[in-house]
Hints:
four-stranded antiparallel β-sheet, two-stranded parallel ribbon, 8 strands, disordered N terminus
Amino acid sequence: MCSSLCKIILSLFLFTLVSVNAQVTIQDSISISLEKVWQKAAVNSKEIKMSQLHAESGLEAVKYAKNKQLPEIGFNANYGKLANIPIFNNGILNQADYIPLEDHSIYGATIDAYFDIYNGHKLKMNIQKESVKQELSRYLEKETTESIHYQVAETYLKLQLFLEFEKLVKQNIYQNEARLKLIEKLHTGGVVLKSDLLRAQLQLSKQKTTLTTIRHDAQLAMQELNIFMGEADDQKLKPIDPIGFQQENRILNYTDYIDKAIDKSPLQRIAQQKVELSRLNLAALKADKLPRIGLFGDYSYSYPQIKLYPYENAPYLLGVVGIKLSYSISSLYHDFHKEEEAKILYEEQKMARENVQDNLRKTINIAYKRYVEDQEKIEELELNIKQAKENYRILNQTYFNQLSLITDLLDADTQLLQAQFELISAKTAEQLHYYQLLKNTGDL
């Protein structure tokens, strides 16, 4: 009975151990799609957060500019002591007579208000400027998000590329190790030369070094993705998206991409907002030369009464309301060069907007051409792999039948591996150029 109980406990222990090991293995490598990385990056990316905070601050700046339309109201109070007041009846060089003061105290409190009726539409233009800045910050946020999405896609594809390279190299090393054992046997039997054995060993050593480099590159790509997602640097990731262009991804023609870029690209919108902001800056400088008209009023309580004659040694109340007109004559010559500078900056921003359009057309054209090239390459490389496999099969057979050289066999092996590398690279490049087109049209 004890033996049966021990067996049951041992079985449960082993089952638990296997379950725990399985969970650790599963947790060691997280399967993740590109869409999931995008979602996590949108929440955790510090660059996106900074752009969002900038947009929020712009919204508060608009509210502040609107609040400036409300009347200005102020309050001030004072208290002090008056000195004796000398009167020089016989000139300043002679002894003065002093006015007797019963109380040397002086104090007062004033409430004042001012409301703009007209100020050259400066307040209105300031609201427009802050609104344009807020729109600009929203487009900057969108551009930052699009850039992060593109960087994430680029890194995700790199990780897929390195992991596929790792599989191919590991498979190639396994085949080369098996082939090396056969060559060692043939060399021991005196069938092949020592140089054949050395060449095979050298190629295997190079492949192992290449595998180490590829693994390091994959680890670096994983760290970069983890940083985007706000995860630990050493978190292992396993991309689950298929490599290559998917049927649901529809490619447009070149002119459609250009039209979309001009219409909705964040870079184009940013350039347009900068032009508008320069125009408003120029208008604001012109508004500085216009008069300012407003209503004012103040109500003050003071002691003693020394503003109106006859003076009284008593507290008093005084209220004043009216309309005020002010005009800065010096602005006609002080702001001349400032206005000329604003005109130049306005023209500069218009030129910058045209430059953005030129760069968008150039970037889209490059991505579109490269995408078409990638498609053509994929068809050719798939055919090249079939030919490389057949070439390797023939040379592998003829070498071990002593009908070809070891160099021909090793070259065939390298050519097959290179063709497989190039096919995977072309498929990932095709995807990357597709995402580049989406980014430049504001759809990523």
